[in-house]
């Protein structure tokens, strides 16, 4: 899981304008506050033509995704001409219950100022990720918004399975992936719960160091 500077997206946006191409952004995992702003691209000057959204759109209650576009693109598929429409009709498209969940989620985000909660999580990550730098098998750490990553030098399948089992045994659900362990907690998480996650990770790392797994 890489985190790149908004400056890179700005450069991509300049190339998009230069060559008159479409800029399509995937905000399925990062949208609705996860990156610290409502959408990750809000941290740049980029203006996408199409944005893919999902996941947090319904607060994780129901499956729902959407493709948002500029009016120019949307209108290109409208009209009386034949064969210009974009024929795409999934079975569960515009599910009323899922759409209601999405509306409720958007209201909740606005009413309870969720971005303020994300900022508190980000501050916690900024302060506490430093604790992992002392381990020789930790390559680096990084974070943005409510996303934290611990990148390891080596994490083969055997070690990965061992780490996953140790987390579960301690009552924490984490998802090691390749050579990284990443955390994307719910925005309503409490400080003592974040402490539980980080303390558990330290316990596992200490055991790893001691046993040389």
Task: Give a short summary of the structure.
The protein has 213 residues and is of the alpha+beta class.
Q: How big is the Rg? A: 21 Å
Q: Uncertain segments of ≥5 residues (pLDDT<50)?
A: none
Taken from the alpha-carbon principal axes, the silhouette is: elongated
CATH fold descriptor of the largest domain: Aspartate Aminotransferase, domain 2
Structural class: alpha+beta
Could you characterize the architecture of this molecule?
39% of the residues lie in helices and 15% in strands. The chain has 6 helices and 7 strands. It starts with 5 loop residues before the first helix and ends with a helix. The model has no long low-confidence stretch (mean pLDDT 92). The radius of gyration is 21 Å and the shape is elongated. With 213 residues, the protein is of the alpha+beta class. It folds into 2 domains: 6-111, Aspartate Aminotransferase, domain 2 (3-Layer(aba) Sandwich); 114-211, Aspartate Aminotransferase, domain 1. The protein has a 4-stranded antiparallel β-sheet with strand order 4-5-7-6, with helices on one face. Strands 1-2-3 form a 3-stranded mixed β-sheet.
